Fold these 2 entries.
Entry 1:
Amino acid sequence: MSSSQNKNRVALITGSTSGIGRAIAEQLSNEGFTIAFHSRSSVVDGEVLAGSHPNASYTQADLADQTQVKKLTSAVLAHHGRLDVLVNNAGINAMIPHTSLKEASADIWRSLYEVNVIAPWTLIAEAEQALRKSSTQDCPSSIINISSHAGVRPKGASIPYAASKAALNHMTQLLALSMSPTIRVNAIAPGLVDTPMTESWSEAHKLWKEKSPMGRGAKPQEIAHIASMLVSSSYLTGEIILSDGGLSLT
Ligand code: NAD
């Protein structure tokens, strides 16, 4: 899809003031999309980003709160009048050894599911009508969920995190079936990516350096490139693109 064809198309990327979300927002903006930036708390960063990308907006919302999740979609639709792409990128993690069952309390399970599973579900439900309206046969609307390799293999920072991302992957495939052909739904399941979330994860950096075929974690821009590929496709749906530099092969 050329940047002139994307000219009036709008993409909402959650958690887009840092890390993977910001890289996806910048990539899609370079490709001509109008970006709806969002974050939980970094309002100044969000407003600066919106001011430096053509026609962009910024909305603050805590996705752990369902009222704010719904307000996010309505604010974006009220401002831009349409939606073509929704990237559910915002997510939270919890580092808990898989053997420490009591440490993974019910509250931790609930908070991870709230942000990593239920918020994407509500955003998709609230955005559905607008995504259907803007969709065309040549250019079906697109949803991308950012899950994790931990949702594909029995690995990850904690069992509740891994299970929440596995739920997001399964939701992706179920929605790909139920929303087709008007709306395509795919997921990207990154391995290690160099972002603020993983700065202190020295063991993971060592693992990727020593064991993965690519010999390193991904840069956020490399995940953004995959998002761009998924958005530009008029055919792919229900895919979960494992993006771990080949670690799962070892
Ligand atoms: P990040 O910390 O830079 O970004 C996370 C974003 O989520 C932030 O913008 C934050 O504001 C937002 N967020 C968190 N809780 C929120 C809430 N309650 N309400 C609204 N926004 C909230 O980290 P990142 O590494 O760029 O992570 C982006 C996504 O990629 C996450 O879903 C994460 O689980 C996933 N992921 C990251 C890695 C990695 O190695 N970095 C690997 C696999 C999956």
Entry 2:
Amino acid sequence: MQMTDLIAKKRDGGTLTTEEIEFIIQGYTAGTIPDYQMSALCMAIVFQGMNDRETLDMTMAMMHSGETLDLSPIQGIKGDKHSTGGVGDKTSLILCPMVAACGVKIAKMSGRGLGHTGGTIDKLESFPGFVTGISEERFFENVNRIGIAIAGQTANLVPADKKLYALRDVTGTVPSIPLIVSSIMSKKLASGADVIVLDVKCGSGAFMKTEEQARELARGLTRVGRLAGRKVCAVITDMDEPLGYAVGNAIEVKEAISVLRGETKGELLELCLALGSCILTESGIAESDSQAREMLQETIAMGSALKKLAELVEGQYGDPAAVYDTSLLPAAPVTIEVESEQAGYVRHIEAEQVGLVSMHLGGGRATKESTIDLSVGLELHKKVADHVEAGESLATIYAPNEQKAAEAAALLRRCYTFSDTPVEKPKFIKDIIR
Ligand code: URA
């Protein structure tokens, strides 16, 4: 088999066979197919696409490029969640304890975040003493004993994607539904869960800018997941403004705890109920969405989800007292209010730019090697459609020093646009694809 023939076949609209796709992924991972040929093939795929069978073959070939997690030592249904990423996304910190409290086993491998804030495991490190790199033995023991463990990726999962995604990133070949589907689903399938729920974001702060693109991606992801024998559903949600109020690390943990305590409602809770209902119904633990929602709401009312978070923290050597007393979490030395320079209704908040404000404060990573400051970030007080008076606070900035605080305040003000007349809040949950 010659890679040049396969590039030409795809360029001319042909369909690659299973063997050809395996040859490509194995060769690229092993280094016998060079970057320049792989990028030419990716560009051909961007223009010609791939059918469902090719996308599934690509996903499976990538999944088998490294280790896969065997979750069979864990009794019960194993659930997992993936988000296509957005600003202020602390959903896993709420959803995982909620569904674990309902009996779904959460054995989650999570990557560190690159960009505006840390990932879930960075955020969990806000709990004093929390260890993300626990041994495999402890990981399985915790899931069996308390129902939940969230660890940093230790296994050599999907090396093909690490190499391929980095290549696509610098060759203009990220925006292709089959390439995105195989990239995301190879990692999710390798992580071993029986039931996978996907949060596909759309809007200015998301990877998919339009609802139609998000819908197409969600359909592709769920189709391939099902063809691979897993139960998969997707929820399409708005990311035109940040999710919830907090953007940062420890402050996102505080917001998550406030949802688990039943003190904060709104879209963040709605999202967790929608994602959680998918997991509980697909797992067979609930018979209907309404029963699932009731069960999930009960975990908040009875405090069982908060307790589950405390057990997760304790199981990974962290201090569970910080779950009940958030003053024990890292706190930034400087706090300032960002006052609005005008009155009006909030028309739009540029989500991606808000993420960059958090990054400017030190809450995110520019490169894999950067360290992040868990204490910094911002808390929005005004969201789209809210009315604001001139001089009223739009947000609180949590900064490492006065200068960064002032710079962040100026940047954040620019993220807001206003209208003199009332603004309609966009629909938050756009669709659920089962
Ligand atoms: N996220 C991924 O993991 N892969 C892609 O290709 C795009 C987004």
